[in-house]
Design goal:
mainly alpha; 2 helices; about 60 residues
Length: about 60
């Protein structure tokens, strides 16, 4: 699962010097992916509404 998520990250994941146990890296990658996908979903929604001729929500 981590390999799939890490493969979608545009830049390499930097490990901390302290020795991150792994779950922190996984949590950070998941949060970044969710934020990126939610922004893309909003953009797709706005584009769809604009093509349909309706008002933009923002």
């Amino acid at each position: 699962m981590l390999a799939l998520i890490a493969s979608r990250v545009p830049s390499p994941v930097q490990e901390s010097a302290v020795g991150d146990p792994g779950f922190l890296t996984l949590a950070i990658v998941l949060v970044r992916a969710i934020r990126r996908e939610s922004a893309a979903a909003l953009n797709r929604h706005c584009d769809f509404i604009a093509r349909a001729g309706g008002p933009l929500p923002l």
